[in-house]
Amino acid sequence: MRHTYLCPLRWADLDELGHVNNVVYVDYLQEARVELLRLLRPGVVPGSPDEAAQGEAALVVRHDIDYLTPLVLDRGPLHIEVWVSEVRAASFTLRYELFHPEPDGADGARRVYARATTLLTPYVFASGRPRRLTPAEREVLAGFLEPDDRPAGPRPGAVDAERATAYELRVRFSDVDVYRHVNNVKYVEYLQEARIAIGDALWRDPDTDATGVVVGRAEVDYHRPMVLRPEHYTVLTTVSRLGTRSMDLSSEIRDGDEVCARGRVVMVFFDREHGRSVEPSARLRARLEEALARGRAY
């Protein structure tokens, strides 16, 4: 069985192209997930002060998101199906499909904007460790279970600080959740901030203003909590792959030498006028090949 959440869209969710920003999708996943997780602990709203007072929560360990087609605001609430694909002793995996039903299509026809996966673990803050799922929790999760044996892909790897571009990141008060940790969605936003900071130096096409980049896939692994503090964190970003019409950027969020999160995004070169993927110009490709060789934008 799949749970369906009707997610309202907001004008502030849009980017400069008039599409929902890639980071906002992660917020949508969180909204759908929270509604489902309420069933695990009846009477306790995930992320609420009541849950925080109990000293434990289901923490996000990993996100994978595939962006399939742009989403705009003109079609009403977004449908998000969420279900369980795997249950282990101390973790469980959720899958999502974000779509609008096609009003004039066949039964079940839908326009799919993204598909995603989240790995979660029950976590006890006092001990700083995950705990095993209870029999009652496993029973609830089993009601939404659709086993999926697709092998997991490689995870984002370590970034060489000597070859990466560094960005100083400061946490805002509004980034922190009720557990006094930075919310999982904000990590994805931080990686975006670092990408944008190096964008002009790296992928602005010197031959045309019509070629931009869009995010085709995002992967984030969460290693340790971040908190509100006056000192900055550091985001390291490096070019890790250059394809025909796309490239990979690998990133780490660090607190000194400690890794808070690792991420990788697939950036697709995009023709703004015609709305399709394109190959970068020869001059842009030469610049990117140089960046790939040294790992950094400047």
UniProtKB/TrEMBL annotation:
Alphabetically ordered keywords of this record: Hydrolase
Coiled coil: none
GO molecular function: hydrolase activity
Keyword Hydrolase among UniProt keywords: yes
E.C. number: 3.1.2.-
Pfam families: 4HBT_2
Presence of keyword Lipid biosynthesis: no
Protein name (Swiss-Prot/TrEMBL): Long-chain acyl-CoA thioesterase FadM
Species for this entry: Nocardioides aquaticus
Gene, per the UniProt record: fadM
